[in-house]
Design a protein that fits this description.
It is built from five helices and nine strands; from the N terminus they run βαββαβαβββββαα. It is globular and about 40 Å long.
């Protein structure tokens, strides 16, 4: 069940993007427990005014999305945006929106994602991220990008890629991409003992840094 969205009131609200095409309800993976866990941790860690017990789901062309500077898109290996959705998401990013992409692995899912992402930002270059980028030091000091894997298989070694404004690394990072990884799943099940503690802790660190970067750039 999709819970009601909270009205905009200036507090940080976790926003998940709902896309209308794709396999099953792939956009809803880990919903809503992941965002509840993450908002609880973020509330303890930071002085952000935020909604701990509520979150929002918006379709890509919802005008209300323009109230929110950071959005999360999951399982893009099944994401096939319509032209209207692609155009709306492009406008949101160009206005200053920061997109977090998560939970996909291996070449087949990458190919679907890449085609979808390039329909949103046709001129974009998707480039590997380096640990020296400010996003990895925006709250937690992340020392290495090596070690995490996708929860579905240890063969999927996590990679972090990005898209910059005007394809210029000196400008704002517009999209952060967690490939061969699924920080959402690690956060969803962090209290259940399913996964190694260090992976769950790292997932919260990455997610926190992403939000802080998105809110300050």
């Amino acid at each position: 069940m999709i819970e009601p969205n909270v009205p905009y009131d200036g507090r940080y609200t976790f926003v998940r993007l709902r896309y209308t095409q794709g396999y099953r309800m792939a956009w809803s993976a880990d919903y809503p427990q992941m965002e509840r866990n993450f908002m609880t941790i973020l509330g303890y860690l930071s002085t952000l005014r935020l909604h701990k017990k509520a979150s929002n789901v918006h379709v890509l062309d919802d005008p209300a999305l323009n109230h929110y500077p950071v959005a999360y898109l999951t399982e893009p290996g099944y994401w096939i945006p319509t032209p209207q959705e692609a155009e709306a998401l492009r406008r949101w990013i160009q206005k200053g929106g920061f997109l977090i992409v998560d939970d996909f692995y291996f070449d087949r899912q990458w190919d679907v994602f890449e085609k979808a992402m390039l329909s949103v930002l046709p001129n974009a270059r998707i480039v590997p991220m380096d640990v020296s980028h400010p996003i990895f030091n925006s709250f937690f000091h992340i020392k290495t990008l090596v070690g995490m894997t996708h929860p579905a298989t240890p063969l999927a070694k996590a990679e972090y890629l990005g898209i910059y404004e005007d394809n210029d690394p000196s400008k704002r990072l517009q999209v952060i991409i967690n490939y061969n990884n699924d920080i959402g799943d690690y956060m969803e099940w962090s209290g259940e003992g399913w996964y190694p503690v260090n992976f769950s802790n790292d997932a919260y660190k990455f997610a926190t840094n992403y939000v802080v970067y998105g809110l300050t750039h």
